[in-house]
Design brief:
By secondary structure, this protein is an alpha+beta fold. The chain has two domains: 18-90, no CATH class; 93-183, no CATH class. The chain is 34% helix and 34% strand. The protein is built from four helices and nine strands; from the N terminus they run E-E-H-H-E-E-E-E-H-E-E-H-E. The protein has a five-stranded antiparallel sheet with strand order 1-2-3-4-5. Helix 1 packs antiparallel against helix 2 (47-61) and helix 3 crosses helix 4.
């Protein structure tokens, strides 16, 4: 399942990119329905019921959140289960910029085929409507193009978000807003 992260302004100095509210509400509703159905039969739930309930509960408690704060001059990434989530932080001064990177599942890195698919993915993310930019036109039938937003720092590259090329315009808008908010350049490729 591809879960789109949502960009929200938490304060004038802080942008947050995280799991949308509709996901939490739907997982909470699904968990409530599972628990209600497990106990409505009058007998104790079986192992399969407990298994599915545990999986939905884990999905409900999962957290993935990036915070871009210009007051504290830092970028932080909080991930994992809410009760035991880990936080990774990078000073904004170490960030050199943001980059949109095309990637196609099923291509050989460095090949001419990969370069052609990458150019097509970038064109699709820009909203190009010509025949050269078609999310369905790839050099192989089992290939799927993606667009990734990465944060480049001095010494490392952090994957912030990755979406299918068809949703690339939304990721591009998020990347432009993040780069503008942090005062860093946005590049492609």
């Amino acid at each position: 399942m591809e879960l789109p992260l949502v960009l929200a302004l938490r304060s004038p100095a802080r942008l947050s990119l995280g799991i949308p509210l509709w996901y939490r509400l739907s997982m909470g509703l699904l968990e409530a329905l599972l628990v209600a159905s497990m106990y409505s039969g009058g007998s104790s739930p079986g192992p399969l019921g407990w298994f599915f309930s545990a999986i939905v509960l884990l999905a409900l408690l999962y957290e993935e959140k990036w915070s871009f704060d210009t007051d504290t001059l830092s970028i932080s990434h909080r991930f994992g289960l809410i009760i035991v989530a880990k936080t990774f932080s990078v000073p904004l001064a170490e960030v050199t910029g943001f980059r949109l990177v095309p990637w196609t599942r099923g291509t050989l890195p460095g090949s001419a085929e990969e370069r052609a698919d990458a150019a097509n993915t970038l064109a699709v993310s820009r909203g190009a409507q010509d025949g050269q930019a078609n999310p369905r036109v790839l050099s192989g039938i089992h290939k799927k193009p993606f667009l990734a937003l990465v944060c480049e720092t001095e010494g490392q590259t952090l994957l912030v978000n990755m979406v299918s090329a068809r949703k690339g315009e939304r990721l591009r808008a998020q990347a432009e807003r993040l780069a503008r908010h942090c005062g860093k350049p946005l590049a492609e490729g």
